[in-house]
Design brief:
The protein is mainly alpha-helical and 156 residues long. The protein has one domain (2-155). The protein is 93% helix and 0% strand. The chain contains 2 helices and no strands. The chain has helices at residues 2-136, 146-155. Helix 1 (2-136) crosses helix 2 (146-155). It is rod-shaped, with a radius of gyration of 60 Å. The N and C termini lie far apart (172 Å).
């Protein structure tokens, strides 16, 4: 009988132990497992969200980089156009200035040529007058013979 009574006592003790565990031990363990499961699920969800955010950020960075490269290319193109335009303007200004200088030089040359002609005419007239005086051995009055001198100057 002792064996049966011992077994019954052990069964009752085991039953009390199981009830105690189910009432006081098992709920905190289950709650801890559920909390851990929730933390893991939240962590996975946060990781997925972070991965999506990372992909969006990478796409945004790539887009901004493309836009920046495009803007840089446009700025370089505009700078090249402006440089070419400035070069053409400088060429035009140099050409205009050269033409102006050539025109001024030609005008100055013409003036010098006319002055030289006038000077030569005056010298030739004086020489002709001196030659005529020597030929006639008389003094030729410039006032009296101005028509003759004008004709002579015009012919020269």
């Amino acid at each position: 009988m002792n064996i049966n009574l011992t077994m019954i006592g052990q069964a009752i003790a085991f039953f009390i132990f199981v009830v105690f565990c189910m009432k006081y031990v098992w709920p905190p363990v289950i709650q801890a497992l559920r909390e851990r499961e929730k933390k893991i699920a939240d962590g996975l969800q946060a990781a997925e969200h972070a991965q999506k955010d990372l992909e969006l950020a990478q796409e945004k960075v790539a887009k901004q980089l493309r836009e920046a490269k495009q803007q840089a290319a446009e700025i370089i193109e505009q700078a090249n156009k402006r440089a070419n335009q400035m070069l053409e303007e400088a060429k035009d200004q140099a050409r205009t200035e050269g033409e102006r200088l050539i025109t001024a030089a030609k005008a100055e040359i013409d003036q010098e040529k006319n002055r030289a002609k006038e000077s030569l005419r005056a010298e030739v007239a004086a020489l002709a007058l001196a030659g005529a005086e020597k030929i006639l051995e008389t003094s030729v009055d410039a006032g009296a013979h101005s028509n003759m001198l004008d004709k002579l100057a015009a012919e020269l």
